[in-house]
Design a protein that fits this description.
The protein is mostly beta strands. It has one helix spanning about 1-15; strands at about 25-30, 35-40, 50, 60-65, 70-75, 85-90, 95-100, 110-115, 125, 130-135, 150-160, 160-165, 175-185, 185-200, 210-215, 220-225, 225-230, 245-250, 255-260, 265-270, 280-285. It is globular.
Length: about 290
């Protein structure tokens, strides 16, 4: 018992002494979420819905920050987690899970699962509806390394449409993320390329790994390992013509999960790797 107490106090001291830059440390996440790749908040719930990436179970986890525990799970019985990279919501009772991670740019089985959150059930199993799609400008699987900008790790839902953002893996990296649009309906579609945005030119610091949309004022947030871009004051879905604020987090880790918690607060999570990360943070906007 004495050893466990010392271990707990040591862990707490280590967390409190670390420099998290612009972020405020909240919790070390449960081990179940060590490969967390997407988070979102639905309704006015206190839960954060989270997913893990490739090779993990096809389960959506309802994480309670207050108790730092997983209190609900939704198992997608007719789904497979080839590479779940993000989760978003319609703001009400529907969750969308993007199985579209594509590091090598060769996948032809991109899919988004749609799940209705069950009421008052701690552990449930569901059959999800599926939106399958291809990217209109990808012709080779994989393309040449200098053209590999077809990996998707971030998306949002807005007014019956999905907006997807690429993680640029080109050997001639210039920071360009591409934005695609497709209907948020069951069926097969071609995702239309509608715009591009240049983040920055550092390969290790400027790849888009997560996204979130604030439904109160329309702010769009894009995430990288060390930055957040906030887009505001745009017309219709012209996100990239918006006013853009770049926020340097001053803390580099494998951050792939972001969601708004109110208009001026963001939850951000990173994967646990080499005894680092696996945490939930808060970023407060000015």
């Amino acid at each position: 018992m004495k050893y466990l107490l010392l271990l707990f106090l040591g862990t707490l001291t280590t967390s409190s002494c670390q420099d998290y830059g612009s972020l405020s440390f909240t919790h070390s996440l449960p081990k179940t979420l060590k490969e967390i790749s997407g988070i979102t908040i639905a309704r006015d719930s206190s839960l954060i819905w989270a997913v893990n990436d490739s090779g993990n179970k096809a389960i959506i986890y309802g994480y309670q920050p207050g108790s730092n525990s997983i209190v609900k799970t939704i198992s997608v019985d007719n789904g497979f987690n080839r590479d779940w990279e993000d989760i978003t919501t319609d703001g009400e009772s529907t969750l969308y899970v993007g199985d579209f991670g594509n590091n090598q740019n060769y996948r032809k089985d991109l899919v988004i699962y749609t799940v209705t959150i069950p009421d008052s059930i701690a552990h449930s199993k569901v059959d999800a509806s599926k939106t399958t799609f291809e990217l209109e400008d990808q012709k080779k699987f994989p393309p040449k390394k200098k053209h590999r900008n077809f990996d998707i790790e971030a998306f949002v839902y807005s007014e019956g449409l999905f907006y997807l953002f690429t993680r640029n893996r080109s050997s001639k990296f210039d920071g360009t993320t591409k934005m695609y649009r497709l209907p948020a309906q069951p069926g097969h579609y071609t995702a239309k390329l509608i715009d591009t945005f240049q983040t920055c030119k550092d390969y290790d610091d400027c790849q888009v790994t997560g996204a979130s949309l604030d439904r109160q004022n329309g702010k769009l947030a894009l995430l990288s390992y060390n930055k957040v871009w906030i887009f505001s004051e745009y017309e219709n879905d012209e996100f990239f013509s918006a006013t853009v604020e770049e926020i340097k987090l001053k803390h580099t880790s494998q951050k792939e999960s972001i969601t708004f918690k109110g208009s001026n607060t963001l939850f951000i999570a990173d994967e646990r790797s080499h005894m680092q990360g696996g945490n939930l943070y808060i970023l407060r906007l000015k």
